[in-house]
Amino acid sequence: MEDEAEIFDGVRAQFPLTFGKQSKSQTSLEAIHNATRRTTRADPLHSGPHKSTVAGETNGIPALSSSSKDWLDSFKNSSRKTSKARVDQRNLVGPSRPRDGDSQVIGEPRIRDSVDEDEPLVGPPRPPAGNDSENENEPVIGPPRPHPAGEGVPDDDEDGTFIGPPRPHTGQLNSDSDEDTEEEDDISGYRLPISNEIVLKGHTKVVSALAVDHSGSRVLSGSYDYTVRMYDFQGMNSRLQSFRQIEPFEGHQVRRLSWSPTSDRFLCVTGSAQAKIYDRDGLTLAEFIKGDMYIRDLKNTKGHISGLTCGEWHPKAKETILTSSEDGSLRIWDVNDITSQKQVIKPKLSRPGRVPVTTCTWDHDGTRLAGGVGDGSIQLWSIAGWGVKPVVCVGNSHTDDITGLKFSSDGLILLSRSFDGTLKVWDLRKMKTAIQMFDGLPNNYAQTNVAFSPDEDHFVTGTSIEKDSSTGGLLCFYDRAKLEMISRVGISPTFSVVQSAWHPRLNQIFATVGDRHEGGTHILYDPSTSERGALVCVARAPRKQSVDDFQAQPVIHNPHALPMFRDQPSRKRQREKILKDPLKSHKPELPMNGPGHGGRVGTTKGSLLTQYLLRQGGMLKETWMDEDPREAILKYADVAAKDPKFIAPAYAQTQPEPVFTKSDSEDDEK
């Protein structure tokens, strides 16, 4: 073994260290972020306090990374009078140097010595001697010298000419810098991470459900194509492909996805009556029970009896789950016991019958829950004292079904989204009327929601596409304090925006879009303010394929697969199938045509081989076709009477004499 190792080391020493290694392409982050930069700008609103609210864009300047932003700030703070740092052309010796255009001299100029003015200067210039005050009129070469302690920085109005980068300026900025800084400070309150964008594709229909775990490493997307796709930012490259695809229930749309508080499991709500729980890797852990649809009282059923509409995990307790259904009830489940629900909640209805509960949600602490009922009412229940009646019931809060509800973390604000194209803001301390209503927000999907920003100073919702509109799917941002729209960001010109989320740790905005033929998840981010998430995977190039990744497709030669080597198809299975058919099995066999086989003769008058041979030899003659049936039977009557053979001899002694009835014609004659 040692000899082999020495031989290997000796052979390896003959090759360079980079032999057999593939060098990775060093693509700069600036180029990567420029490739993912959004080309569309936000829609400026005249009603807002600012002219433009696009993140990272000031007077047309796109968002910059942290390194570029620091450089730009230092450049703005620098002196504007660097034009004085030019060298007098009279001090140049020799031929003119090449210029970059017509603006500046390339390279450091050679300066004539003040002592020997008639002689040309050879070599680098001499360092200035003596005190700085004695050589004030001489040009300074190289970066500026540091000032001694206790001395102030000289003004830019001095007569000295500076060569090299300007010194950082500590005084007041000029008017241009003041305007830029004021504008940056002005839009800093509306800093939206929307400068760059990536799209997670894979679904064939609109994406109706979205869930991002609390750490921001995994994303779940559910669609109307009945599938759930799982994405992992840490293991995903720039191709943005999902690592797993699951189908919870065949033929049922995915309507809601929700992570547990510990992010080790997630809840999947579909159009069926049973919700499912999966682990972090997409393996099924539990399935809720379905109730008895023939029981009229919903409190006596063990589960939902109709399709689910929404569901959400408890924000604090990892064993509690809330679901709502089209059967008109909300149910609280215990994950450890899925054979029956923990609590059944029936909303207060304005009319008798079953009205579906379209959406439900927990508050930030999990002490209250809210449900949107199909009659347009919003109802709130408190966990502290469970009762039949809700704590708060706002009737006719919307004119159509409610699609989304969201509590604020401080427990003061409730947002509601509806099919009627409105977004309403409610004060939980006074729920009689909404404090603000935003209209003109078309909504065509039952899963359209509303989400808060990480600091909850803003909230965002999506819009659907209308037939006669050309705006496309939009993300609309609102200010919570001023209760006004900040910006409208175009996400897709042909797809509707359904689900939206603003992750607090990543500072990235997620928006799901799609239509009947395609769906995806758009991720908006800003390289200077966002963290991890999309920044991790977009900068990771896909692994290059090596020789081991290629597999030769084997060619299988099967001569018996050719038509000339195939056996004749067997009709055994066909005959067995016919015998099982009660109609076909009772049908008599038809006479054969053509040459016979299997003991049967083809075009002959008989079906048996013996009959065929007898007919051919003249021993069997068929005359029954030409005779009268009655005469053929009566010709044996005399023989049977004279010489009985079978039945008559056995009853000869006891057989009575037959007495026949006389005919009517004889009675008439008499």
Q: Describe the largest sheet.
A: 4 strands, antiparallel
Largest sheet: spatial strand order: 3-30-29-28
Q: Structural class, from secondary structure content? A: alpha+beta
Low-pLDDT runs of 5+ residues are 46-72, 74-118, 129-136, 148-162, 168-188
Based on DSSP secondary structure assignment, what is the total number of beta strands? 30
Morphology: elongated
β-sheet strand percentage:
15-25%
Q: What's the Cα radius of gyration?
A: 46 Å
Task: Give the N-to-C terminal Cα separation.
Answer: 139 Å
Helix count, per DSSP?
Answer: 12
Quote the average pLDDT: 76
- The percent range for helix content is 10-25%
In short:
14% of the residues lie in helices and 24% in strands. With 670 residues, the protein is an alpha+beta fold.
